[in-house]
């Protein structure tokens, strides 16, 4: 994922959520709608999440040190995982609690036009943010389905923003439905039911984000397309005759570690082997530019030993 594309989507979402949060709290102050309060907290949580994504991106750009020789690229995964925790606790659990309280102790809505007007404004703003995230994602998604894109993306920012914006839009529709039913039926319990539905939605999205980000934190290999390109780049059929075994690991969204044991001819001199390894490394970097850390170990191919690896 391009850095500019991810940042553009994050900034668009941050601007939309800050303006929406202010409007929602104003509507809550005038109407007493629990859906408005839950949605206001949701927007604040989302704004904090976007700030975390921007901070994680900035911190991941620090240079490698003796203590962290492979750099700080994984900080983007850590901050994305924090986003899932914030969305679960501040957004989801708070909405569930507020909805329960509203159902248990219902009270009529005051100045109903405030929450309705704010929800319409918020839906328009979220559509703008969601469209920006979709456009930026389409530049790198290729032929993947949206589900595959979210599951396989090595850069976490766009999938996080996509799911957040989707959750925000659905949550706004639920809030509008809860407020509308409360007005039509005269029963404010519907406002609380809408709030509970928002809480369930946010908890589910937070769990999805946590599961996907945990996989990145544990360490994922290169994408299948990149693996094939690396294999083809290593073997030249002359000095490097085959790959005995290979491992890849994302040190960050845009930094890949490649480690492989490769077979060379037994009659080659040390100088020829070293030159073959250097050439193979060059081919790998040309084929997959994010392959920044490469370790190639030359060896003689033995079928029995290869099976044990």
Give a verbal description of the structure.
There is one protein chain. The protein is 69% helix and 10% strand. The protein is mostly helical. The longest helix is centred in the first third of the chain and has 30 residues, at 75-104. Mean pLDDT is 85; it is low at 1-5.
Strand content: 5-15%
Q: Oligomeric form of this entry?
A: single chain
- What would you call the shape? elongated
**Helix content estimate:** 55-70%
**SSE series:** HHHHHHHHEEHEH
Extended strand count: 3
Computed structural class: mainly alpha
Number of helices: 10
Provide tags for this entry.
single chain; 10 helices; elongated; 3 strands; three-stranded mixed sheet; 309 residues; 10% strand; mainly alpha
Concise overview:
This protein has 309 residues and is mainly alpha-helical. The chain contains 10 helices and 3 strands.
What's the topology here?
Blueprint: H1 3-31, H2 34-59, H3 75-104, H4 113-141, H5 146-152, H6 157-185, H7 189-218, H8 224-234, E1 240-252, E2 255-264, H9 270-287, E3 291-299, H10 303-307
Helix pairs in contact: 1-2, 1-4, 1-6, 2-3, 2-6, 2-7, 3-7, 4-6, 6-7, 8-9
């Amino acid at each position: 994922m391009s850095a500019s594309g991810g940042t553009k989507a994050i900034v668009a979402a941050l601007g939309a959520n800050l303006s929406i949060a202010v409007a929602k709290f104003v509507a809550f102050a005038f109407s007493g709608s629990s859906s408005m309060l839950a949605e206001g907290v949701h927007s604040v949580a989302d704004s904090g999440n976007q700030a975390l994504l921007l901070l994680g991106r900035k911190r991941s750009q620090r240079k490698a040190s003796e203590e962290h020789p492979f750099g700080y690229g994984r900080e983007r995964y850590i901050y994305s995982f924090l986003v899932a925790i914030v969305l679960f606790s501040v957004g989801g659990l708070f909405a569930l609690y507020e909805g329960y309280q509203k159902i248990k102790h219902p009270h009529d809505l005051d100045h109903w036009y405030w929450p309705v007007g704010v929800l319409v404004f918020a839906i328009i703003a979220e559509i703008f943010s969601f469209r920006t995230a979709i456009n930026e994602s389409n530049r790198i998604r290729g032929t993947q389905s949206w589900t595959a894109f979210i599951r396989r993306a090595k850069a976490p920012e766009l999938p996080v923003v996509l799911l957040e914006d989707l959750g925000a839009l659905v949550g706004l529709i639920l809030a509008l439905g809860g407020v509308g039913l409360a007005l039509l039926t005269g029963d404010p319990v519907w406002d609380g039911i809408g709030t509970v539905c928002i809480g369930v939605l946010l908890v589910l999205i937070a769990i999805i984000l946590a599961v996907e980000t945990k996989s990145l934190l544990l360490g994922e290999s290169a994408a299948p397309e990149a693996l094939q390109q690396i294999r083809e780049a290593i073997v030249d059929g002359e000095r490097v005759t085959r790959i005995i075994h290979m491992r890849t690991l994302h040190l960050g969204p845009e930094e890949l570690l490649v480690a492989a044991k490769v077979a060379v001819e037994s009659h080659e001199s040390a100088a020829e082997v070293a030159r073959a390894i250097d050439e193979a490394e060059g081919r790998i970097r040309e084929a997959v530019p994010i392959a920044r850390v490469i370790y190639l170990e030359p060896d003689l191919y033995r079928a029995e030993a290869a099976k044990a690896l």
